[in-house]
Amino acid sequence: MHNLLINKLEQFTRLSAEDKQVLADVAQGRVRVRGAREDLIREGDKPTDVNLILEGWACRYKILPDGRRQIISFFVPGDLCDLHVFVLRAMDHSIGALTPITFAEISRETLRDIMSNHPRITEALWWDTLVTAAIQREWTVNLGQRSAFERLGHLLCELFIRLQAVGLTQGNACELPVTQTELADATGLTTVHVNRTLQELRGKGLIKLHGKHLTVPDLEALETASVFNLSYLHADHEGRALDARNGEAGSAGQWSRGA
Amino acid sequence: MHNLLINKLEQFTRLSAEDKQVLADVAQGRVRVRGAREDLIREGDKPTDVNLILEGWACRYKILPDGRRQIISFFVPGDLCDLHVFVLRAMDHSIGALTPITFAEISRETLRDIMSNHPRITEALWWDTLVTAAIQREWTVNLGQRSAFERLGHLLCELFIRLQAVGLTQGNACELPVTQTELADATGLTTVHVNRTLQELRGKGLIKLHGKHLTVPDLEALETASVFNLSYLHADHEGRALDARNGEAGSAGQWSRGA
DNA sequence: CGTCAAGTTGAAACAGGTCAAATACCGTGG
DNA sequence: CCACGGTATTTGACCTGTTTCAACTTGACG
Fold this sequence. Notes:
The structure is a homodimer.
Chain A: H1 4-9, H2 17-26, E1 30-34, E2 39-41, E3 49-55, E4 58-63, E5 69-75, E6 94-97, E7 101-107, H3 108-117, H4 119-145, H5 148-166, E8 169-170, E9 173-175, H6 180-187, H7 191-203, E10 208-210, E11 213-215, H8 219-225, H9 238-246
Antiparallel strand pairs in A: 1-7, 2-6, 3-7, 4-5, 4-6, 8-9, 9-11, 10-11
The structure holds a DNA duplex.
């Protein structure tokens, strides 16, 4: 019953008990495990299923012929890989585990059934897909316009808020199970510079980062320093509105703030 | 009847005469015009229609509070803006005309009808949406990993090939109706550096660029120099396969090459 | 307690940015 | 057909954020 995807989708819409059951079942279908650094799927492969991340982190990435690697996006628990990939013949990028990971494979047929019989879920999955696209656009802005300092800060804001949405934060802290090399590959910087920039963020008291444990003492301060604007995560939605109307706080953390 | 969107979608699938008629009608619905630099829709607006670009170029962009601007993607004729935006409450970015432009507004209802009655079109629109997402990912790689030289070269390859797909190239030439400032905002470089880099591309004979007229004497050479890999455009598809089988060349240019 | 990956540091080099001015281009009105 | 004004392109000199390279330290884990 308890399922991070449900948490996330309820940011957007209110799901019925039946809807939730359907999603819970889906997460119990073909469950797979991978070790850190193993791929879930590789560039060139024919996509067959949609992957739902249950535990651990993964990422999309692409490697250029000369070895340069760009991490294109991060997947955290509750994230769905690519809702409609089947339409394409071959993957144009790989998806790799960053930590040991468990995920559920959802077949094309299962998904088709859900989408024809459960309009509420369908709409919520749509929303999730559009938010994913918005995140990708924001990464374009991040890489194109922000300085190293802002860029890293922005990434940390985004990840913290996404984790909050599925209930994986504890107060102002969360796990950040990635290496500095991976942060470098995601931000288009070198490891060395990521290291120095993290020190700068720490020096200004914007983050605390020991090992894989991240604390953001003042999220608003970090957002300001990183030129971060929440709106691209599209959290201000019906789910929230319903919560407010019912005076019924969502079980998971909230994306939006204030009015 | 003649419609650039049809050209593009036929890269992916074979459309029936009726399908084509439906698409042609759509392009004749609510046609609008905008001057260069005018916005089609602005960040914060509620999205109501899907825009189909008929003539001229546009772009998605985002402006940071301090004025930095990132162009997130280019739209060329035949491009569809955002197939499912209605799900979102507000735009998280703006879409602006780069040249004088004409576009058709497609209503939510029209689109719903098409998608429930024309599975072939639906699937083709899916494909288009997924290719758009793949392009956005490739931009992430471009901004994160490629040097200024490769980055500009890569962008020019992509645009040339996309124009080819809708039949807007003449041999190895096409129009490139954007300013160096706009190329700079798209690549995350400064105008000055774009200017110098374009001179470098010209100097190596990889492009000719007078005014708004671009020639790519040897596309493969430009691709190699730019670490460009066609596969993210997902052109190797059913439409092509059918063409090959029938020995019936597509009316528009082709994305894929060789076998 | 050894080993291997991850994180940290310093010095030097460079890609790309900044600033500011010059030149070319283009549509408009006289 | 030319002069004008505004925008786009080009150039030069200088500056800086980020990279490179290479070594050193710390930490996790069997």
